[in-house]
Amino acid sequence: MTSKPTPIDCLIIGAGAAGLQAAYFLDKKGLGFHVLERGQVGQFFRDFPRQRNLISINKVHTGLSNPDTRLRFDWNSLLNDEGDLVTTRSRRYFPTADEFVDYLGDFSQRFADRISCGVTVTRIAKPDETFLVETDDGQVWRARTVIVATGMTKPWQAEIDGIEHVENYFDYDSTKTRFRDKRVAILGKGNSAFETAESLIEEAQSIHVISPNSIKLAWNSHFVGHLRAVNTNFLDTYQLKSQNAVVDGTITRIVPENGGYTLHIAMSAAEGHEIVLHYDHVIACTGFRFDDQILDPAIRPDLRHMGKFPAMTAQWETETAAGLYFAGTLMQSRDFKKTMSGFVHGFRYNIRCLVEFVAARLTGAAYPHATAPLDAQALGALLIDRFSTASGIFLQPGFLGDVVVLDGPDAGAIYTDVPVDWTDDAPGFAGRTLLRATLEFGNFGANSMHVKREHTLDGSTPDPFIHPVLRLVRDGEVLAQTHLSDHLDSDWRAPAAKDAGNGTVQRMTYVDAGQTLPGHEVAQRQIAAFFAAQGLFSDAPQAIPAQ
C-alpha cells in the first residue's frame, strides 16, 4: 500500500449531495479536504428512486425576493453563495432524479480536482491522533478529521422467515412487463413501497401492500419521510376496490411454492386472525441501512433505530473516535422521523453547522455569531424577521433554532440555525441564560384536514400549524416558554416589509383581544408580553446579570 505522507485536514467519504455540501463549506473556510467516491458523483441518485421521480419540491414561482426565504420551497438545491440552484434548471415541481444528478455533477466542478471517483474505502481506523483511510487501489490516506457521507447503502431486511427468497427494491428487475397479469406483494408502507406499487398498477393483476403498521401520511405527521401525497394514487385503487389492497399484518413466514410465494400473515386489526395469501412476485421495500463495515471495529459506533443508523453526538460526531463525523441522511439518527435531517432540505443546514464544528476542532475557531440588540422592541423586530424569512429554522422545525445569549460578557451574541441540543450541552453555554427561538408544529388532532384553533393571544396553547416558539433556557432546562400564533403565510412581518403583492392574510379575530388584528401586531404583542413576564429588557438596554 502507498501512504500519503502529510495528513489532510478533512477526508470526505462520498460525493453525493451531503459530501458535496460539506466540501463546499470546507472550501469556503480554506480548509484542506479530499473526497473519495466509490462510484460517480451523485451515485445514489443514479440508482434511486427506482422510478426516477423525486418527492422533494422545487417551487420556482414563490413571489419572494429574499433568496433565503425562497429556499423554504426549494428542497433540492445545495446551499451556496453563487445562486447555483435546481430552481434555475428545472421548472418541474418534483424534478427527476436524472436532473438532480446533472445538478450535482455541475456543482462538483468547482472542486473536481479534489474528488476521486471509482475509489472504494475499505477501512477507516484511528490508531493515534490521525485517521488512516485505506482504499481498494492500495492507497492509505491520512486525515485529521473524517466526514462519512456514504448514506444508506445496504438494504434493511425485516426479520421474516423466508425473506431471503424475495426480490428487494434495492436491485429488483423493474421491467414492468414482468408483472403483467401477475399477483404482486410489496412489503413495507413507505414511499418506496407505494412508488413501486404505483408503477405496476397498469400491468399487475393485483397488488397488495403489506406491513404490520398502518400507513403514516406526511400530511398528518408533518414528517416528509412518511407517505407523500405524490405516491398515494394507489390508495384510490384500494378504497374503490380495484383489485388492489393495503394489508395491516405481520408476515410470519414466506414459503416459495407452486412457482410463487405463500405468505402467512398475522393480522394487526383482527387479534388472533391469520390469513394465508399466494403471489407470483414479492418485493421487499423495507428501507436502507448504514454499512458500518468500513469502520474499524475499535471505532465502530453502536447502531440506532432498528440497526439502521450510527449513534452520534449533537455535533454529529461519533463518541468512539473524536474527529469522525457523519453527514447527510445519516444525520437523521439525531431526529429520527421528527424533522428533515434525512433529506437534502434538512441536512444541508446541518452540514453548514457540522463544518463549523470541524473547523473548531482543526483551528480552535469559535462558532461564528452576530450581535442582537438587548432591547425589547428591536430584538422583537429581529426575531419576527427571522421567523418570517429564514429557511433553516423553517425546514428543521424544533431541531435547529436561533439562540441569543442574555447574560455574561458576550450578552447579545446570537447564533442562528444551530442545533438546539448542542446549545443545551456545549461548554460555552453552561450556566448562561439563553433565549431560544424556533419554529414548530403543534398538535393537529384526529383530522389534519379540519383543524381546531384557539385564536387567542395568551401563548399557552400551541397552534397546530408551524409557528414561532420562544423559550428561556439555562443548562438545557426550560425556565419559561410561549407559543406565538401561527400565520397562514408563515410571515409575521408588517405589510411594508413584505414583497409587493405578497401575503394573503390581512387581519384575524382573536377571542381574548375582542377584535380582529393584523398578524404583525399580534406577534409584536406576544413577544413583548413574554419579555415583560420574564422581566427582560424592562429598563434601558442592558445585559441580564450572570446567573
Task: Describe the structure using short key phrases.
single chain; 547 residues; alpha/beta; 8-stranded mixed β-sheet; 27 strands; 20% helix; globular; NAD(P)-binding domain-containing protein
Model description:
This is NAD(P)-binding domain-containing protein. With 547 residues, this protein is of the alpha/beta class. It has helices spanning 17-28, 43-47, 67-70, 97-107, 191-200, 218-221, 233-239, 344-363, 376-389, 392-395, 420-425, 519-533; strands spanning 2-3, 8-13, 33-37, 115-117, 121-125, 131-135, 139-148, 154-155, 167-168, 183-187, 206-211, 245-257, 260-267, 274-279, 281-284, 288-289, 303-304, 309-310, 324-326, 370-371, 400-405, 413-419, 433-440, 467-474, 477-483, 508-510, 515-517. A hairpin with a 2-residue loop joins strand 24 (467-474) and strand 25 (477-483). Helix 9 packs across helix 12. The longest helix is centred in the middle third of the chain and has 20 residues, at 344-363. The chain is globular, with a radius of gyration of 25 Å. It starts with a strand and ends in a 14-residue tail after the last helix. The model is unreliable at 540-547 (pLDDT under 50).
